[in-house]
């Protein structure tokens, strides 16, 4: 009896009232005697009570909506996904109204009922560590309403992780750009996390992931990407456990396009850079690389950032005098492009004499090109190279007395053999 009353009450307030009234009738029958003042244990009393209840049950069943509403996650959940939390579906009916709010702020969550009336979901990912309430109404084919209410709390930042990825969605990049993902928490189950990330190229090249650390995972093919191809990165990390008590919250697909195949080779010994695009040499530029005391790294380096003008302070990369001040501090370096995390750039140089380019290596490890102060002269070599380069282009340095740059110093995994690269995969 009690179970039936609760079930009916979830669907219609009117029915609940009938059930309550009916319950009152039953209570009086049980506690009071019959009309004669008897104990109420006679067959006649039982028959009346049973008959009344049967009629009430039938009436309730006739009035109850056949629509069945489901809200995910289950009511009271405190680790809900920010991507699937709040999804509403219905069977044997159609949704007519759904309202979702963040309880503390009262902010409504935008969403829309599907064209077929069978589902509703938030228009965007939810906030982490937030309690939400969802109220849904549906009607069956006879117009009878069903109601459902659920509250849940999304997973907290402390118990979840995300990955920050390069390159950005929709960008066009050079052939050297790897997919690089930095996680905001250490990953202990590397196999599970890597298995949930798929990287594919329209070129059909085999793409393999390599863990540089517990927080960094890069993907690349054996050779540079094919010019003109499209790469898709599918992050299916929602619900994936990275470590004990830390779960992924991302469900995101991004794509980027591979543009031209540009590889520029800096010969430190000859002090020249040869720019080759799509197999053809388009320009040879005189350069000034690192001095003998501060040589430039050898190796294949990928342009990861571009700045029309930027400040370069030697103290930030370890070049300081006895007083701890930077050996240089240039506030307006023109046409600078980053080649390493540790501070290697290829950039314009307006403070050096024109005569050093092509004849002397004088820098603290960067590759300098002749340029003008203010970055406003397009005829300068620094300006030309900046305008004709994109993120992901490759700059190869050779014949320097320094070591080869490490694969994890910037986006420079190309300096690792393919066998070793594959050895760093968890799958």
From TrEMBL:
Q: Which domain of life is it from?
A: Bacteria
- Transmembrane stretches, start-end: none
Q: PROSITE patterns under this entry?
A: LD_TPASE, PROKAR_LIPOPROTEIN
Do you know which InterPro entries this protein is assigned to? Big_10, LD-transpeptidase, LD_TPept_cat_dom, Transpep_catalytic_dom
Does the keyword section mention Transferase?
yes
Q: Which residues form the active site?
A: 347 (proton donor/acceptor), 366 (nucleophile)
Which residue ranges does the record assign to the L,D-TPase catalytic domain?
262-398
| Biased composition regions of type Basic and acidic residues, renumbered to the chain | 43-61
What keywords are assigned to this protein? Acyltransferase, Cell shape, Cell wall biogenesis/degradation, Peptidoglycan synthesis, Signal, Transferase
Q: What is this protein called?
A: Ig-like domain-containing protein
């Amino acid at each position: 009896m009690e179970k039936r009353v609760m079930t009916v009450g979830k669907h219609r307030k009117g029915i609940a009232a009938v059930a309550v009234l009916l319950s009152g009738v039953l209570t009086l029958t049980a506690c009071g005697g019959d009309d004669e003042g008897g104990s109420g244990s006679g067959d006649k009393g039982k028959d009346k009570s049973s008959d009344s209840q049967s009629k009430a049950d039938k009436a309730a069943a006739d009035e109850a909506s056949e629509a069945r509403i489901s809200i995910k996650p289950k009511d009271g959940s405190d680790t809900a996904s920010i991507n699937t939390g709040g999804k509403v579906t219905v069977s044997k009916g159609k949704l007519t109204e759904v309202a979702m709010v963040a309880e503390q702020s009262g902010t409504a969550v935008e969403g829309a009922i599907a064209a077929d009336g069978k589902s509703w979901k938030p228009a965007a990912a939810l906030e982490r560590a937030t309690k939400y309430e969802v109220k849904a109404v549906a009607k069956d084919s006879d117009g009878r309403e069903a109601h459902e209410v659920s509250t849940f709390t999304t997973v907290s930042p402390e118990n979840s992780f995300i990955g920050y990825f390069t390159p950005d969605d929709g960008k066009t990049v050079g052939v050297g750009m790897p997919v690089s993902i930095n996680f905001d928490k250490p990953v202990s189950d590397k196999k599970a996390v890597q298995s949930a990330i798929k990287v594919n190229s329209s070129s059909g090249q085999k793409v393999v992931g390599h863990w540089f650390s517990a927080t960094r995972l890069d993907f690349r093919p054996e050779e540079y990407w094919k010019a003109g191809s499209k790469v898709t990165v599918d992050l299916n990390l929602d619900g994936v456990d990275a470590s004990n008590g830390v779960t992924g919250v991302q469900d995101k697909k991004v794509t980027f396009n591979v543009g031209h195949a540009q590889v520029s080779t800096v010969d430190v010994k000859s002090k020249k850079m040869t720019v080759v695009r799509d197999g053809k040499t388009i320009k040879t530029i005189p350069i000034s690389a690192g001095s003998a005391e501060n040589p430039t790294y050898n190796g294949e380096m990928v342009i990861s950032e571009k700045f029309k003008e930027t400040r370069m302070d030697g103290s930030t990369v370890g070049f300081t005098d006895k007083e701890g001040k930077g050996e240089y501090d240039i506030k307006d370096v023109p046409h600078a492009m980053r080649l390493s995390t540790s501070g290697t750039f290829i950039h314009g140089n307006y403070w050096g004499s024109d005569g050093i380019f092509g004849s002397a290596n004088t820098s603290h490890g960067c590759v300098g090109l002749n340029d003008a102060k203010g970055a406003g002269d397009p005829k300068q070599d620094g300006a030309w190279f900046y305008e004709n380069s994109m993120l992901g282009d490759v700059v190869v340095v050779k014949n320097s007395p320094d070591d080869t740059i490490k694969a994890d110093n910037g986006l420079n995994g190309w300096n690792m053999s393919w066998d070793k690269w594959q050895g760093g995969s968890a799958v």
